[in-house]
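Q: Structure for this?
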Amino acid sequence: MAHRRLAEPTPCNRVQAPRPVSIKDVARKANVSHSTVSRALQNNPLIPRETAEKIRLIAGELGYRASAVARGLATSKTRTVGLVVTTIADPFVAGVVGGIEDAANANGYSVVLANSHADPEREMMVVRSFAERRVDGVIVTASRVGALYVPMLSRMRVPIVLVNNQHPGEFTHSVMIANLEASFQATDHLIHLGHRRIAYLGDRHGHQSDTERFGGYRQALDQADIPFLPELVVHGDGTPEGGIQAMGRLLALADPPTAVFCYNDMTALGALRRIRVSGLRVPDDISLVGFDDLYIAQYTDPPLTTVRQPKREMGRLAMEVLLRLLQGSQSERTIRVPGELVGRESAAAPKERQPCNY
Amino acid sequence: MAHRRLAEPTPCNRVQAPRPVSIKDVARKANVSHSTVSRALQNNPLIPRETAEKIRLIAGELGYRASAVARGLATSKTRTVGLVVTTIADPFVAGVVGGIEDAANANGYSVVLANSHADPEREMMVVRSFAERRVDGVIVTASRVGALYVPMLSRMRVPIVLVNNQHPGEFTHSVMIANLEASFQATDHLIHLGHRRIAYLGDRHGHQSDTERFGGYRQALDQADIPFLPELVVHGDGTPEGGIQAMGRLLALADPPTAVFCYNDMTALGALRRIRVSGLRVPDDISLVGFDDLYIAQYTDPPLTTVRQPKREMGRLAMEVLLRLLQGSQSERTIRVPGELVGRESAAAPKERQPCNY
DNA sequence: CTGAAAGCGCTTACAG
DNA sequence: CTGAAAGCGCTTACAG
């Protein structure tokens, strides 16, 4: 006994928004109940192969597409992950996001993207929006996060995975580059090339990453018995502009460094520019090493020696950790991914000095 | 008469997945029906201010967050837009996506991101996934789209907006850069600097964009009565690698060009590299103009003269067109956005020639 | 102004 | 193996 509303479709020929075909439409055509259709489409073993196939065929003919929203309501799982980034226009972030995306899609998850622009108000909106969308989990890839951010997210009570994040909270998991080891390697490379006056051009907003990268630099110096000189440490802000400023300070020194290890490639880009403007050459006068291995690092002049962060893989890993958490498994709290020094042409032996034993 | 299931929560103290507070919880605490709560929270004018405020207060205390999935099921609007990109790692794409994101969020829409990797199989999966998620509309920002792609999307019967897309179909709207005018301007700039042997370094995969940019180049030549020389037209593939190859062919000419207009900045990056490798200098020996104004265009050496595509604005515009479509308004089929020539240092007057009247 | 009821399109215990 | 029923958390006509 169908209700009026469920009777045959209005006889008029142009329906403005033709409602998508539902499980009931399939059921009707297949002469079974919608429960059976639901089961068949889920490959429920209760349904005999024959029936299931017939139903699947009809569903195909009708162009049936299960509603993820209805399913989400029924199961309280949306198979959706919220992904917050400071800005997608950051090439490091974009690389990571690509990896997350791929791993998510490969596992039937969709990614809801949100830019926070490192703005606390936006961050609030993002959390609210993710909460309303009932995302199953969230991944944060932000160069700078408001201190209240992660706690806010935590209140949603879904698993959270951070990528290269500052203050990884108590309740979160994270995937991070092995900053200390990588920086050690980079600095050590310069030392082996014969440099002794090596500067560190950091990022004053980099928090933990900056601290760790600086730490690796110091360790390499120590191990080589090179005295640490505070005047050789300057800070930019992670952008080329910041690199230009900071490099300027280094060049203004009575005895400038012969090599500079930069917090990231963007900073190195600025340093490179600043050096060239002053009439000096890289690597002839000053060697330069970056961090990230952004795509463009191969195309600077000279090509930039840098530490590669496996961005895609880090994204993939983060998604995989999240996936594990979503199925209730355990996962290591912090995964440290090794960086890889990729030698190009911006770092060479200092002028008038033998490239020492190497 | 509550069902067993709805009786008081299990007395045990640790619920593993505490169901989020619902409209009913608020209703109970506020001593009204859930209908009233729903109305109050929607600012329905039927509900008196006082009641509404009380309800909102309680909702706040309870940390109530309306379920977008339940609402989506009830209203058959998800306030979600599907965004397909070839790859988010492309800096042009990332810029556009940033603009889309901002406009979407500003209007209460969420963005579901999907990478197609220009792979037909992935494209199918994306369409399927968007269909299941019941996205309200879709935006495509892809440098290359499978020919079947847009038709497939069209079958979802939701509005579609393309950004800088090839073959904009009959049923779609699009936002595009004014290729012809912009290329004309770029080429004309080189002509005014005094160049006459100007090459066009295109993108063999660029389809419509390449054709149009080439068109602007030809028109500028024609207008200046400079004969068109087919040997001065070569093609890369939109990447630096392709630019390197193609530039190589140009340099192998008996009489190489004094200026090259490149399809995009990535290509120009390769051309720049190739020129330098051959011992020539930019702009002293060869002038170079790009297209896009990627962030790095300011940091190449020399900084790249190029045509700026207002990526963020284009993304914003695309979202705004979609928004209009979603509220049932009309919108122009194709919006052409003007490019802007940004003069930096890679283009200058040719050697041994006066910069003509300018 | 307010509530009871029906419906959105699924899933899944329950009862044959 | 299969169906009827209840439920997920909203919205919104309908009837006071």
